[in-house]
Design brief:
Helix content is about 50%, strand content about 20%. It is globular. The chain has three helices and three strands, in the order αβαβαβ. It has a three-stranded parallel sheet, with helices on one face. It is an alpha/beta fold.
Length: about 80
């Protein structure tokens, strides 16, 4: 939808700037709390493109599965 498309730039910029401030490099490990949200998912994808190993948390098994499909280790918030 138009509304969904208009949020992409904000989500992408937020994730990109956060990773830049971390000075993330290839082979770094990164934990993203709340990885199943919009910024979290974008950060996962950008970090993986940079070669980082990513672990993320999600609140339900379904969301954990979504994160695993992005190629990350996913855990329930209480497991970390």
């Amino acid at each position: 939808s138009i509304a969904q498309a208009t949020t992409l730039p904000l989500v992408a910029i937020t994730a990109h700037e956060a990773l830049q401030r971390l000075q993330l490099h290839s082979n770094d490990s990164l934990l993203i709390m709340g990885g199943s949200g919009g910024v979290g998912r974008m950060a996962i994808q950008l970090a993986r493109l940079q070669g980082a190993q990513v672990t993320a948390t999600a609140g339900s098994e379904a969301r954990q599965q979504q994160l695993r499909s992005l190629g990350v280790e996913a855990y329930h918030h209480n497991d970390v």
